[in-house]
């Protein structure tokens, strides 16, 4: 059964579906965004006259892991809600796959799960015309939807003026790095945030409520206090160019990731943890993820590195071995911030500079799933405790409510 706070969110989604309007579902990582949205849509289909039809739902995600997660939940919930007497066709449209050439059939309940990249590259194909008339368009990790490709997908759907549609976004961090981009994001979804009243109004109180109720884990913070970091000229120029974006820190993170003494301190701290704890590490570069995994494995803690360009089968294999306990530590760069589901993660190590509020929250969220959501009662967050010279004004402060005013 959905939890009471999830039922409240689902009711807000129902309003969007009934009126064919727009909105972003705002739920912290670990609180069940995907589950709630899919169940709300399935319940909406069941409530339609004569039991349907649902029509076509277009579900867009950033990566294959997110697409796979959506497919799995759609199949499970369609069966669990007693709709077996109606067939549901799920079309996989990512990583070069396209089910039956995307040929439209007479089936009336269809979900097309697509990667943003593959869908955007083929918007002009005639075979996608029936998908263009979808009754529901869902954008997973909707904080990315200000990207040009998403804007063009949205415009592509809006060109089918004769058929109204509902636009639903999912995000744990419905804001961007500055007011202008955040306002643009809010405007794309009619400034409508589906966040419910039960959890509270602002992010910290919502998190605390979910923790106290056992839906999210309690955070135990450990800071390694590694001290002030010297910044080289090229790194300073990069940071000053993009002070609010993590890309500005790429050069610095890359250099720090090659520091063998620093890596040994990180590895030693992980090795001192309970050997039964599954640990996720956010490294500063691909090489850093590889170096940490190698050192940890050599010292007796089985570890694997993953990164964005790693072959999909190898990434899936590493994640499954981590979930099953065959690997104790998963080190990664640029992969596990979104859509990664390993409820028993017991520690999150952020071994890099992170200036983006949203990115930090997404990283921390990998360990937030609480006991009522098949997770853990406590999660340890390990940060490096490194600081920059004062001229960079980087104090690590998170101000996640500063864009609240943009949403109705």
Describe this structure in words.
The protein has helices at about 5-20, 35-45, 65-80, 115-120, 130, 150-160, 180-190, 205-210, 235-240, 250-255, 260-270, 285-300, 310-325, 355-365, and strands at about 20-25, 55-60, 90-95, 110-115, 135-140, 165-170, 195, 220-225, 225-230, 280, 305, 330-335, 345-350, 380-385, 385. With about 400 residues, the chain is of the alpha/beta class. The longest helix is centred in the N-terminal third of the chain and has 17 residues, at about 65-80. Helix 1 crosses helix 2 (about 35-45) and helix 11 (about 260-270) packs across helix 12. The radius of gyration is 22 Å and the shape is globular. About 35% of the residues lie in helices and about 15% in strands. The protein starts with a helix and ends in a 21-residue tail after the last strand. The relative contact order is 0.14. The strands form three sheets. The chain has a seven-stranded parallel beta sheet with strand order 3-4-2-5-6-1-7. It has a six-stranded parallel beta sheet with strand order 8-14-13-10-12-11, with helices on both faces. Strands 9-15 form a two-stranded parallel ribbon.
């Amino acid at each position: 059964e959905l939890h009471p706070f999830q039922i409240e969110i689902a009711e807000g989604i129902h309003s969007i579906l009934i009126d064919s309007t727009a909105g972003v579902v705002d739920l912290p990582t670990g609180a069940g965004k995907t589950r709630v949205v899919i169940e709300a849509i399935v319940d909406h289909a069941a409530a339609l006259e004569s039991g349907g039809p649902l029509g076509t739902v277009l579900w867009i995600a950033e990566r294959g892991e997110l697409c796979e997660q959506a497919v799995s939940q759609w199949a499970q919930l369609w069966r669990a809600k007693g709709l077996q007497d109606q067939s549901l066709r799920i079309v996989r449209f990512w990583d070069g796959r396209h089910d039956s050439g995307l040929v439209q059939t007479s089936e009336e309940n269809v979900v097309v799960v697509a990667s943003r990249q593959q869908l955007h590259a083929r918007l002009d194909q005639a075979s996608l015309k029936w998908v263009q008339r979808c009754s529901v368009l869902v954008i997973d990790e909707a904080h990315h939807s200000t990207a040009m490709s998403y804007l063009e997908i949205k415009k592509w759907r809006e060109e089918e003026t004769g058929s109204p549609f509902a636009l639903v976004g999912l995000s744990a961090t419905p804001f961007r790095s500055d007011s202008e981009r955040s306002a643009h994001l809010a405007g794309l979804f009619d400034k409508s945030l589906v966040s419910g009243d039960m959890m509270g109004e602002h992010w910290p109180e919502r998190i605390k409520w979910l923790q106290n109720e056992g839906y999210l884990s309690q955070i135990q913070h450990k800071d390694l206090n590694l001290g002030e970091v010297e910044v080289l000229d090229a790194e300073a120029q990069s940071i000053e160019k993009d002070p609010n974006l993590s890309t500005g820190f790429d050069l610095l993170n890359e250099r720090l990731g090659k520091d063998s003494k620093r890596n040994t301190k990180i590895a030693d701290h992980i090795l001192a943890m309970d050997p039964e704890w599954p640990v996720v590490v956010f490294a500063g570069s691909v090489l850093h993820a590889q170096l940490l995994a190698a050192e940890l494995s050599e010292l007796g803690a089985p570890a694997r590195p993953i990164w964005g360009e790693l072959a999909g089968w190898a990434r899936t294999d590493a994640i499954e071995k981590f979930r099953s306990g065959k690997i104790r530590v998963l080190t990664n760069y640029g992969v596990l911030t979104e859509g990664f589901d390993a409820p028993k993660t017991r520690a999150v190590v952020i071994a890099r500079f992170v200036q983006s509020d949203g990115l930090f929250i997404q990283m921390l969220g990998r360990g937030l799933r609480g006991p009522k959501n098949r997770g853990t009662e406590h999660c340890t967050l390990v940060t490096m405790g490194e600081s920059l010279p004062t001229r960079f004004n980087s104090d690590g402060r998170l101000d996640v409510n500063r864009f609240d005013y943009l949403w109705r």
